[in-house]
Amino acid sequence: MFTKQEIYEYLWDEPYFRDDNTIMVHISNLRDKIEGEPNTPKILTIRGLGYMMDEGC
C-alpha cells in the first residue's frame, strides 16, 4: 500500500500538498486504461490511507 504522499513525492520529487488532487486524477486515468470491469478493480483505494494493487495483478 502506498499513500498519496509517497506516490507524489516519488514521481514528482517535490513535497506533497495535502489538498492537491493530482494523484486522484492520475489514479482515475490509470483505472480507465487498465481496468476492463469496474466491479473488479485492479487498483484498490484504502480510504484515508492510500492505494494498493489487487493481489491478482
UniProtKB/TrEMBL annotation:
Q: Which residues form the OmpR/PhoB-type domain?
A: 1-55
InterPro entries on file? OmpR/PhoB-type_DNA-bd, Sig_transdc_resp-reg_C-effctor, WH-like_DNA-bd_sf
Q: Which Pfam families match?
A: Trans_reg_C (PF00486)
Q: Which GO terms describe its molecular function?
A: DNA binding
SUPFAM superfamilies in the cross-refs: C-terminal effector domain of the bipartite response regulators
- Membrane-spanning ranges: none
* Keyword check for rRNA-binding: no
Give any single GO term for biological process: regulation of DNA-templated transcription
Alphabetic keyword roster? DNA-binding
Q: Which residues bind DNA?
A: 1-55
What protein name is recorded for this chain? Sensory transduction protein regX3
What is the species listed in this Swiss-Prot or TrEMBL entry?
Acetivibrio saccincola
